[in-house]
Each structure stands twice: as structure tokens, then as C-alpha cells.
Specification:
Blueprint (H helix, E strand, L loop, with lengths): L1 E3 L4 E3 L2 H21 L5 H7 L1 H4 L5 H9 L10 H23 L3 E2 L2 E2 L1 H5 L1 H20 L3 H23 L7 H28 L3 H28 L2 H4 L5 H4 L5 H11 L7 H10 L6 H12 L3 H19 L7 H15 L3
Antiparallel strand pairs: 1-2, 3-4
Helix pairs in contact: 1-4, 1-5, 4-5, 4-9, 5-7, 5-9, 8-9, 9-10, 10-16, 10-17, 13-14, 13-16, 14-15, 16-17
Length: 339
């Protein structure tokens, strides 16, 4: 057994390990090529997050999914570069919306060069992704366009908030399905499509991506509460500071609402803080500490484990091979980041 990044994913097959390593190395080369501009400043800004690293979760899923067809088919690596470029572009835009100062352990692009440059650099990455996508055929363009619509819709839904009478937890899961799961789902689909896998296999990989993408985001929600900036590579509690309530916070609010007047002093205090201005550093730190001790974190972990279990179960009809076992192990790797 050997270990392959990201997440220390365990791989038991030498041929699969070699394919994953060479595929991800080719993706890195493709990312550097796609972020190169005739204007040196644009190259520096576009490569800022590429060089900072990252988990490369989506390209990894493309590579593993391609194992159910021809993993060396010419469209596999470009498709993986497309999904990662799209993901990177959304990070540039997210950091502007969140006013984030740190991303992947380095100053965010907006903190270094300003919001305008960050937004335009994200647009530049979208354009480069589109350029690569055009060579993958009209079906790939359609799939990416549908995914991007879902992604933007999810982001808008998060920004606007739940409509009156809509359960905030249900609303949040709809947000996650759009802004997070959609692109991970496409990663599974592209890997199957580009490798020429059977349509029934492509459907399974697409749905698997949907589930594990949601689990991946919920795990990130938990880490945003529990980790420090050294572990997560970004400022803890960023969503909380911006008034965006993720799964642990929504569970804490529901917990308090259902307490029937039996809430503890800490639970009452946390509920008060969640209505306060958490851009205040002292209040933000207090809210984070109370969340870290709240049962809501365990409820969020259970939800994450359930989604990972659903993803793993979806793999059952696939032929038994090392890639299937690696996809199952990826479910464990994703959720085990939360502790």
C-alpha cells in the first residue's frame, strides 16, 4: 500500500498509483500553461493560487473516474485542468466577496493586489478554462455550462439567504448542491466521459461526485470552525465573520430553538452572539470557542459521514478494480479530515 496526495489517499495498486501520479503531474503542467499570459503581471496573479498548492481534489476524481475506461485518452488531462481552473476562478471571486485575507496559507489575491485585480483574474481563469473546453467537444461544453449555472445559482442563493418560511438547513443543503457539489459531480462525469466508459458507469460516477462533493464541503465547514489558519490554510471562521451560517452554526441555532427554554448558559450566549456583529474580533473569537464545544459539531460530523456513506454505496454496481477501492477510500479520507 502506498499513499498518494491529496488527503493521504491509500492506493493498493502500483499501476493505479503510477497513473494517478503521472496524471496529476500532467495537470500541474497544464495549469501552469493555462495561466501563462503575454502580460507578466497577469501570469503572476493567475498563478498565485496555483503555486500555493491545494488539494487538487477535482482533478484526482477525474483521474480515478477515467480508470473505468481508457485513463490515457487524450481528453482526460485537459478535462481535469478545466475543472481545476474553474474551481480556482471561483476562489478568486469568493475571496473578494468574503473579504478574505488568507487563502491556502498565503495572502489572498485581493489582499495583495486589490479586489478589481482579483475579480478580473478570476475572469481570466474562466476564459482559459473555456478555451480548453472548446477542444473537448459540444457535449463537454454543455455539461460545463449546466454545472456553472448551478454553481452561480448556489452562490446567489447563499448571498440572498432562505426565503421566508424555508428551513435554513434545507436551504443550505441546496446551496451546497449548487456551489460545491456541481463541479465535483462534473469531475466524475468528465473522467468517465473522456475515457469512454459505459454510460451507466458515467451516471454512477456523476452521482458519486454529487454526494462526495457535498461531504467534502461539509467537512470544510467543520474545519473552518475547528482548525487554526496553519492547518486549514485560511482564516478560521471566515463565513461566521461574514454572517454566512454553515452547517455547524445552523445546527446550533436549531438546537437552541428546540431547547424549549432548557438551553445552557453557553448555548444562550452563543445564540446571542450569532445575532451580533461578528466582525468584532473579540466577539468572533468567543463565538468560535463556543461553537467548538457545542454538540452541533457532532451533528454536522454525522451529516458528513452520512453523505460519504451514500457516496460509497453508489459504487457497489461498478466493477471491482483498484479504482473502485480508491474511490471508496476517498470517502473515508474526506470525512476523516474533520476528526
Amino acid at each position: 500500500m502506498t499513499v498518494v496526495e491529496p488527503f493521504g489517499l491509500s492506493v493498493w495498486d502500483e499501476a493505479l498509483e503510477a497513473d494517478i501520479r503521472s496524471g496529476l503531474a500532467a495537470v500541474e503542467e497544464g495549469l501552469l500553461e493555462a495561466t501563462k499570459s503575454d502580460v507578466p503581471f497577469i501570469t503572476d496573479a493567475a498563478r498565485h493560487l496555483v503555486k500555493a498548492g491545494g488539494k487538487r481534489f477535482r482533478p484526482l476524481l477525474v483521474m480515478l473516474s477515467a480508470q473505468f475506461g481508457d485513463p490515457h485518452a487524450p481528453g482526460v488531462v485537459p478535462a481535469a485542468v478545466v475543472v481545476e481552473l474553474t474551481h480556482l476562478a471561483t476562489l478568486y471571486h469568493d475571496d473578494v466577496m468574503d473579504e478574505a485575507a488568507v487563502r491556502r496559507g498565503v495572502p489572498s489575491t485581493n489582499a495583495r493586489w486589490g479586489n478589481s485585480v482579483a475579480v478580473l483574474t478570476g475572469d481570466f481563469l474562466f476564459s482559459r478554462a473555456s478555451h480548453l473546453l472548446a477542444d473537448l467537444g459540444p457535449e463537454a461544453v454543455r455539461v460545463q455550462a449546466e454545472s456553472f449555472e448551478r454553481l452561480v445559482t448556489g452562490q446567489i442563493m447563499e448571498t440572498v439567504g432562505p426565503r421566508p418560511g424555508h428551513d435554513p438547513l434545507d436551504h443550505y443543503m441546496e446551496v451546497i448542491a449548487g456551489k460545491s457539489s456541481s463541479l465535483v459531480s462534473v469531475s466524475g462525469r468528465f473522467g468517465g466521459m473522456m475515457s469512454g466508459a459505459d454510460e451507466s458507469v458515467v451516471r454512477i460516477l456523476t452521482t458519486y461526485g454529487e454526494r462526495i462533493g457535498a461531504a467534502f464541503q461539509l467537512a470544510d465547514d467543520i474545519l473552518d470552525i475547528t482548525s487554526d489558519s496553519h492547518e486549514s490554510g485560511k482564516t478560521p471562521g471566515t463565513d461566521l465573520r461574514e454572517g454566512i451560517f454553515t452547517l455547524p452554526v445552523l445546527h446550533a441555532r436549531r438546537w437552541y430553538a428546540q431547547s424549549g427554554g432548557n438551553a445552557t448558559a453557553e448555548e444562550r450566549r452563543l445564540d446571542q452572539l450569532l445575532d451580533a456583529d461578528l466582525t468584532d474580533d473579540a466577539l468572533h473569537a468567543e463565538a468560535l470557542e463556543l461553537l467548538r464545544r457545542h454538540p452541533a459539531l457532532e451533528l454536522a460530523r454525522r451529516d458528513t459521514l452520512e453523505l460519504a456513506h451514500q457516496a460509497r454505496t453508489l459504487l457497489d454496481p461498478l466493477p471491482d478494480n483498484p479504482a473502485k477501492y480508491a474511490l471508496a477510500a476517498l470517502c473515508d479520507a474526506v470525512v476523516h479530515r474533520t476528526g
